[in-house]
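Service request form, structural biology core

Requester: graduate student, group of Dr. S.
Request type: structure prediction, single chain
Budget code: on file
Notes: please return the result as structure tokens.

Sequence provided:
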Amino acid sequence: MRSSNPVFSRRGFSRDNGYAGFNAQQPQAGGPAVGANPYATGNPYADGATNPYATNPYAPQDVQTGAPQQARGNVMTIDDVVSRTAMTLGTVVLTAVLSWLLLPVDPANLGKSYGIAIGAALVALVLSLVQSFKRTPSPALILGYAAFEGVFLGVISAAVSTYIADGVVIQAVLGTMAVFAGVLVAYKMGWIRVNRRFTGFVIAAAMGFMLLMVANLLFAVFAGGDGLGFRSGGLGILFGVIGIILGACFLALDFKQVEDGITYGAPREEAWLAAFGLTMTLVWIYLEMLRLLSILQGDD
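Core staff response, request fulfilled:
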């Protein structure tokens, strides 16, 4: 199952890095059907299902059957995903706090701080694109992306808190954490079913949302004002809610990717891609939450 997250939609846990990985767009012969619960029988490889990683030519041979298998110590676990995600998000938070403290947003320094923030955002974008098109995860690129993204978030958050709505940053952080926890609980309880239809809907909605935001930005640049008005007033509130809902859907898709990677024995290094994708999704949700709360408090 491919995620609409930019990282997972490019690679996911697939064959691109030379491993015989999981690719739910093209189900493996004998494998579980798309949208099926791999845990339904208690054994994800029961009823004729096969582990796609078992064909990895670099895996050690089973001493009894001679079939290749992943080395136990080289298989991704949930602990690997949690630790890599904590490192990546920790880098974002650390650089955000440092940029908040070291890059003042008072009128005398606002232009300079904004320039640094925009430059950091562009560098983060380039690093994310490079990683997205790499065949293997690079911890240096991922942590570098996190560091520059943190600089951007720190300056933007400080400016919003100073000039628009004091205290909104804490609310946005708490809101992001609440969305993450809510989606995780809903996913684990089976209230969200990530299947092909769900994925197609989210991808289509995300594409439409991004096209509208680009159009709004272009109108704002060339016509001035707030463009088409998608980021202020009633429309701004509506699109802020839609953006958060899309972010929540991305989280569900990312959880599915992580679960499938662990189930099918993805290589341990793939945990960095899981951390990268989750971080990008959480940044998306935080920015949408910050924008929505700013509009609501600004209208007050």
